[in-house]
C-alpha cells in the first residue's frame, strides 16, 4: 500500500506564518480581507468556496462572498466586478474559473488589480511568473502541489515530473514552478499518445484532467508519487481523477478529499496577507 500524503499538516505549517503576518498587518492598521467571487453554482466551485471559507474562519481571516447568477450579463458583471476590484479594504480577489461562456473571461481576468491578483489571473502576473519575478503570485493550486512535495521531502531536483494538464490555471504555471526546482517536466493532455506508459515511468505524476477516477492502477508503478488535483463528484461524493486502487501500486498518493484542496485554500490566504502587508508598508 502507498503512503497517503495528507494536506492538513502542510496547511497547518503555512497557516502559522499567515497568523503571524496578520498580526503584523493589524499593528499597522490594516485588516487583511479576501473577496470570493463566484458566478453560478458549479459543484467544484462551491466545494472550493467552502474550503476557502473554512480556512478563513479557522484563523479569523476576514472575507466577503460575492455570488452572482449564472445568467448575469457581461455589462452587469463588469460593473459589479469593478466595484470589488476598487474596494480599498479588499487585498485579494479569488474569481472562480471557468466563467460561463457568455462572459469574456480573458478580458475580465485582465481587469483584476495585479496587486490583488492572488491566484495569478491577470496576464501581468503570468508574465511575472514566467520571467521568475519574486513578486508574482503563482496560481494557488500549482503552488500547493510544490508545497506538498517539499513538505514530504519528495526529491524534485532531477526528478521526472509528468503533469497531466496544460491549462494556464494549473499545468503551464506548475511546469514553471517545477522547473525552478530543477525537475524535468513533461506536460500531457487528452491528445497524448500512450499516456499510461508515460505516467508509469514518471517519478511524480500530477493529475488535473477533471474526470472522476480516470486513472486506475494500471497507469502507475511503484516509483510514482501521485498528486491528485481532480475535484469530481460521484453520487454527491467528492472523488479525484485517480482511482483509489492506485494506492495498491504507487509509492505515495494524495487523497481526495484531504489532499491538495486544503493546501490550495491556505496558500490563497498567504497570498492575500502578503498583499495586505505590501499595502501596510506603502
What do you see in this structure?
About 40% of the residues lie in helices and about 15% in strands. The protein has nine helices and eleven strands. The chain has helices spanning about 10-25, 45-60, 75-85, 105-110, 125-130, 140-150, 170-180, 195-200, 260-280, and strands at about 5, 35-40, 60-70, 90-95, 160-165, 185-190, 205, 225-230, 230-235, 235-240, 250-255. A six-stranded parallel beta sheet has the order 1-11-8-7-5-6, sandwiched between helices. It has about 280 residues and is an alpha/beta fold.
Largest sheet: 6 strands, parallel
Q: Can you give the helix content as a percent range? A: 40-55%
Number of strands: 11
**CA radius of gyration:** 19 Å
Q: What topology emerges from the helices and strands here?
A:
Elements: E1 3-4, H1 8-27, E2 33-39, H2 43-59, E3 62-68, H3 74-86, E4 92-95, H4 105-111, H5 123-131, H6 140-151, E5 160-164, H7 171-180, E6 184-188, H8 195-201, E7 204-207, E8 225-228, E9 232-234, E10 237-239, E11 252-253, H9 260-280
Parallel strand pairs: 1-11, 2-3, 2-4, 5-6, 5-7, 7-8, 8-11
Antiparallel strand pairs: 9-10
Helix pairs in contact: 1-9, 2-9, 6-7, 6-9
